[in-house]
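Before the break, one more example. Copy the sequence into your notebook; we will annotate it together after we see the structure.
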Amino acid sequence: EIIAFARDYDPQPFHLDKEAAKQSLFGGLCASGWHTAGIMMRLLVDNVIGQYASMGSPGVDQLRWVKPVRPDDVLHLKGEILDVKPSQSKPDRGVVTTRYEMRNQSGEIVLTMQAKGMYRRRPQNQA
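Here is what the structure looks like once it is written out:
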């Protein structure tokens, strides 16, 4: 998967070729950061935002690739909600700011991201 993704989207030698990767500053084959971010997005859709009224995202405030992701790494994702703001101009929605950490099987952080997501709000109960 690492090589296939790199071939299509990030064809740098340390993502494509095991021998070239050994000679790189990574010391071995590693996933593209964009591949890792794509895995994170899949985990989010399957386990979080796909279960709620997601309306997309106005963007990412911060994205860091902290440590290389290697073949056979097992990745885990954790999110912490930092802020929730109802939209003032569109009362049917709000913006949630979340900080995410992706860790490998050893508990090492490999990626962090802070992003905003738009979500449909529940209808207000009318008295």
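The helical segments are 2-9, 13-16, 18-22, 33-47. The beta strands are 59-65, 76-86, 93-103, 109-120. Try to locate both features in your own notes.
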